[in-house]
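haha ok so turns out i had the wrong file open the whole time. this is the CORRECT one, sorry everyone. sequence first:
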Amino acid sequence: MKNPTKTASLDYEEQLYAQGFVHIGGVDEVGRGPLAGPVAACVVIMPQGLMIPGVNDSKKLSPKRRKELASTIKKHAIDYALGWADAALIDEINILQATYTAMSRALENLKTPPDALLIDGVQGKWLPDMPCTFVKGGDSASHSIAAASIVAKVARDTMMLQWHEQYPVYGFDAHKGYGTAKHMEAIRVHGLCPLHRRSFLKNLDL
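then structure:
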């Protein structure tokens, strides 16, 4: 079956393998922009040289394809782990710091410590005590980062589907907490629930 999505390369990983690193963790997060729900981070350590066809930025994949690839990634990974920061923490320390917290938690949850990290984005204040390479657009450029983006996205979407069962009036099953017109209208009619990020909504005209 032909896959129309280009597979993210192993170039960044190979550069680190050439320097003697063995366990390279790809790091990415999802859910920084929504008005509700947590931010999720993931670290994935893949075996050297393994390339899974179709692994790329999770935003470029259909939900069905993401779930298929997430299952394959988890099956073949040396290790992977998730970290979370909920809406209350986001409101308390801001979304950037909450994202760093989620990433740190994901690292702490690994059973296999990485030797080096490939991190999506530009260098910020989150600097774990190990060699780190920041890759702008990394979820399309690095196979490990792309794998992390897929696992994180599927995990967060699954969580939002579960929350939909408890708060069905907001339509979390459809928009996963993002600020769609239907979501905004639901907030106007029903107010906020514990999943909503108050700091994101305080300046909006509801």
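The mean pLDDT is 94.
again sry for the mixup
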